[in-house]
Automatic annotation (TrEMBL):
It comes from the Bacteria. Keywords: Antioxidant, Disulfide bond, Oxidoreductase, Peroxidase, Redox-active center. GO terms for molecular function: thioredoxin peroxidase activity. This is thioredoxin-dependent peroxiredoxin. The active site is at 49 (cysteine sulfenic acid (-soh) intermediate). Monomer. Belongs to the peroxiredoxin family. BCP/PrxQ subfamily. The keyword Flavoprotein does not apply. One of its GO terms (biological process) is cell redox homeostasis. The keyword Oxidoreductase applies. Thiol-specific peroxidase that catalyzes the reduction of hydrogen peroxide and organic hydroperoxides to water and alcohols, respectively. Plays a role in cell protection against oxidative stress by detoxifying peroxides and as sensor of hydrogen peroxide-mediated signaling events. InterPro entries: AhpC/TSA, Peroxiredoxin_AhpC-typ, Peroxiredoxin_BCP/PrxQ, Thioredoxin-like_sf, Thioredoxin_domain. Its EC number is 1.11.1.24.
Length: 167
């Protein structure tokens, strides 16, 4: 498992978008200058994830006003992610990491068959990375269950705190 440190350049990636087409982190950094949260979530089937993504969508104008963008990834299948994205009218990129390659590059916890408890089968758990305008990691948090993740209000505080205290 990879262990990324604050200040490291985040692993770049290209993945399929839920609605089709390809997303490139490097291209997004170039085309949408600013900071970005890269969020890993369990899947379209997860009610806690759906609630969280809806909260982010509802707060998107605040974040965009601060030049902070969002990208969400899951190991879920592309069609289920598309259905979820459409149902919740999510406007930020939602990506399918079906091979789990990006999950592994970021060191996100993977709830596999060897996990000590049953939890909706095999899937990646929530993780959060705040990247600066160059793609360097300014904040990270990883979960081993669906609970304890920062919600949109906390993400606002995290980004504001880091910006205020940059060296």
């Amino acid at each position: 498992m990879n262990r990324l440190q604050l200040g490291d350049l985040a692993p770049s990636f290209s993945l399929p978008r839920a609605e089709g087409g390809e997303y490139s982190l490097q291209q997004d950094i170039t085309e949408r200058p600013g900071w970005r949260f890269v969020i890993f979530f369990r899947g379209s089937w997860c009610p806690v994830c759906n609630e969280e993504l809806q909260e982010i969508q509802d707060s998107l104008s605040y974040f965009e006003g601060k030049d902070i963008h969002f990208t969400a990834l899951s190991t879920d299948n592309q069609q289920d992610l598309k259905d979820m994205k459409d149902k919740h009218s999510l406007t930020f990129p939602v990506l399918a990491d079906a091979t789990e390659d990006i999950l592994k590059q970021y060191g996100v916890y993977y709830h596999g068959e060897d996990s000590p408890y049953e939890d909706h089968g095999i899937h990646g758990e929530p993780a959060y990375y705040l990247l600066d305008e160059e793609g360097k990691i300014m904040y990270q948090q990883q979960q081993t269950s669906p609970f304890g993740r920062p919600h949109a209000k906390e993400l606002r505080k995290i980004a504001a705190y880091i910006r205020k205290n940059l060296k």
